[in-house]
């Protein structure tokens, strides 16, 4: 992951004066997910899937009207196209595994293909494809939104940026040049991790979700009958003075690896300081968060 992140920063950030954070990070998180779940590394292949995926995401939370032209209809078609790609990939991988030309532990796709339940039953091809689609969905926009918001706050709070930079430089200096980040290094990122947690408290990527009561129950003096539709709201919990600051620590590997690599190389200013955040459905800067990059004189 560290190496892929360094390559991403070299290609998409270095040598540029201004970068739009949100769309750039969107490509990065999708690339990471494709690598981790399916070992797809070819840029063209990833970009083709990413384009379909964007259409899919736009229709996930929309009115379920399946007629041509609606967001929902486009999303259904895009999901079918992605499933087809993944199905093809699964078949190729099964062949490669049979011929011992792929490893059973190389990624999630291999794992799902070779693993059975206690009764020896394997997942069907469609179940494997849907599992990967779910994980691509769950990991992509959430992480993009979180990293973009971290970049926004670090530009707005130079004191916090300096503390993050110091922590990351200390970690970089404790390692031999060129040695990649290890799990132990991530565990040392205590301050950075708290910054990420705090950003996600203030701007949670997921604002809430739906539930259905499966039994009658009482909450805060209210009787909730079985079958009631409920919505849980992240914001009200995150802003509850009784609960905060005891919120549990959230350690997110991909965000910390990105943070390590980006603060080591750059400082940045927001090109549009008062840029609005829109919720679609994740917090997203309306203009993609353009930033002016200022490379450090010497990078570690
Ligand atoms: C900043 C990043 C992330 C945030 C804020 C986030 C947030 C959430 C939330 C709030 C839920 C609960 C949804 C519900 O119960 O209705 C959820 C579920 C889930 N997330 Fe994430 N997530 C993040 C990253 C990831 C990543 C990187 C992965 C996969 C590698 C992932 C995989 C999943 C899965 C599979 C579920 C469903 C779990 C279940 O229902 O059993 N998420 N996530």
Automatic annotation (TrEMBL):
GO molecular function: heme binding; iron ion binding; monooxygenase activity; oxidoreductase activity, acting on paired donors, with incorporation or reduction of molecular oxygen
GO biological process, one term: sterol metabolic process
Keyword annotations: Iron, Metal-binding
Pfam family, one: p450
Keyword DNA-binding: no
Superkingdom, natural source: Eukaryota
Entries under InterPro entries matching the protein: Cyt_P450, Cyt_P450_sf
Family as reported in the entry's similarity comment: Belongs to the cytochrome P450 family.
Official protein name in the record: CYTOCHROME P450 26
Organism: Salix viminalis (Common osier)
Phylogenetic lineage: Eukaryota, Viridiplantae, Streptophyta, Embryophyta, Tracheophyta
């Amino acid at each position: 992951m560290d190496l892929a992140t360094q390559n991403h920063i070299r290609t998409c950030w270095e040598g540029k004066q201004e970068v739009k954070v949100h769309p750039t990070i969107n490509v990065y998180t999708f690339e990471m997910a494709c690598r981790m779940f399916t070992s797809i590394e070819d840029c063209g292949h990833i970009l083709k899937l990413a384009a379909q995926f964007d259409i899919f995401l736009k229709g996930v939370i929309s009115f379920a009207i399946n007629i041509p032209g609606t967001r929902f209809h486009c999303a259904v078609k895009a999901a079918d196209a992605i499933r087809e790609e993944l199905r093809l990939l699964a078949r190729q991988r099964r062949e490669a595994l049979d011929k011992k030309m792929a490893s059973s532990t190389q990624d999630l796709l291999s794992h799902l293909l070779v693993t059975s339940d206690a009764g020896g039953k394997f997942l069907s091809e469609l179940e494997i494809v849907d599992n990967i689609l779910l994980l691509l969905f769950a990991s992509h926009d959430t992480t993009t939104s979180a990293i973009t918001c971290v970049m926004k706050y670090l530009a707005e709070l130079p004191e916090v940026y300096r503390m993050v930079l110091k922590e990351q430089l200390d970690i970089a200096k404790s390692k031999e040049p060129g040695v990649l980040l290890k799990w132990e290094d991530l565990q040392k990122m205590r301050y950075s991790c708290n910054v990420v947690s705090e950003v996600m408290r203030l701007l949670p990527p997921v604002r809430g979700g739906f539930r259905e009561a499966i039994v009658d129950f009482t909450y805060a003096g209210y009787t909730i009958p079985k079958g009631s539709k409920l919505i849980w709201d992240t914001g009200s919990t995150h802003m509850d003075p009784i609960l905060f600051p005891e919120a549990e620590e959230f350690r997110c590997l991909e965000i910390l690896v990105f943070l390590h690599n980006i603060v080591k190389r750059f400082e940045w200013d927001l090109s549009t300081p008062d840029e609005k955040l829109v919720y679609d459905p994740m917090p997203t800067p309306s203009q993609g968060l353009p930033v002016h990059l200022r490379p450090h004189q010497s990078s570690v």
